[in-house]
Amino acid sequence: MPLLHKIAGVVIVCAVVLGLALPGERGGGRDEGKAAERAGAASRTPAEARAAKAGRTPAPGGSGTASPTASATAPIAAAAPAAAAAKANELGQVPVLMYHRILKKPELSLDRSTKELYDELTRLAKGGYHPITAAEFVGGRFTVPAGGHPVVLTFDDSTPGHFGLDAQGNPKPDTAVAVIEQVARENPGFRPTATFYLNKDLFGMDDVQAAAGLKWLRQHGFEIGNHTVTHPNLAGMSEKGVRKEIGDMEDRIAKLTGAHTTTFAYPFGSVPKKEKWAEKQDGRYGFQGMFLAGWRPSTSPFDGDFDRWKIDRVRSEGKIKENDCKRYCSTAWLDYLDKHPDERYTSDGDPNTVTFPKAAEDRIAKQYRARARTY
After folding, report:
1. Does the residue 357 lie in any domain?
2. In this structure, what CATH number is given to the domain that contains residue 48?
3. Based on C-alpha coordinates, what's the Rg of the chain?
4. Which of 77, 113, 141, 234 is least enclosed by beta carbons within 10 angstroms?
5. Which pairs from 212-220 meet CB under 8 Å and 24+ separation?
6. How many domains is the chain built from?
7. pTM of the model
8. Which residues pair with 130 in a beta bridge?
């Protein structure tokens, strides 16, 4: 989809400048002060970007979360010695990486080569990162070994370079899924999973192939997400148009898989006039998390500032001049987090607890306070 990729590049740049891709108040209230704050985010250093509060809404309670009636002032229990030794910080930032076409030889600015994908995933594996799905991230229930770091791998537009099955029923060589599985084989402990956000052209497959392919992905631990039928800019569409784009795609996914999706990624990162149009339509779709096309890691799902309706992502790219990738794309952010490990999400190894340094106690979302542990 060359034209879409060209448009995507332009829209993402505009989003950075205008602050459209950065999180803000849910459901309105965008006064001039807020707009100025978001517009300035593009010129901040990574540290400044993290420090700037965006007024997000709390994360939703997931399975095992604290009761809403739990006291917000109750003392937080001490962390396990092993968690403290691992320097766990489960209020740290989480990279949610955004990929588009995967090709042997990139053609457009958003493309990544199979080698670039392999090298980046290998870097993640060697750096102690462990992939989780977008749904697991949003729900705040995932398992990462103590001392490790979660990362969410997302692939937009369901292009042929993402996935396909050969005659033997195995992932086709040089596709994203094949590369992910190769890196997992070479790096024990690196979980082979990712989230694929689908448009109508399902990896270049017909409906029979798509049904088999989507079944294979789900059976092997990959997540399927909604990305609309035709990848339009939802910001300029009517309620009817927004619901048709999302609902028709959801109908097709449900027909092919027998299941509904949990998460949604905005095409171009563009939010419609009323966010509720995209979030839910009774009897048709209802998402638990919505992903943007932003330029910084996400806040932890346990942080009181986490907004599940506007989750930041980072474009996969090296430190190139285009779109200020020297500072805001994946290589730059991974370098930054390596140099500032205290700002990165580091797991305590126990999915039933949320461990962090005592100095960060005021940041824990109230619904997770009963699971909190400090040191």
Report:
1. no
2. 3.20.20.370
3. 20
4. 77
5. 212/165, 213/163, 213/164, 213/165, 214/253, 214/256, 214/257, 215/257, 216/165, 216/169, 217/163, 217/177, 218/257, 218/259, 220/192
6. 1
7. 0.84
8. 150
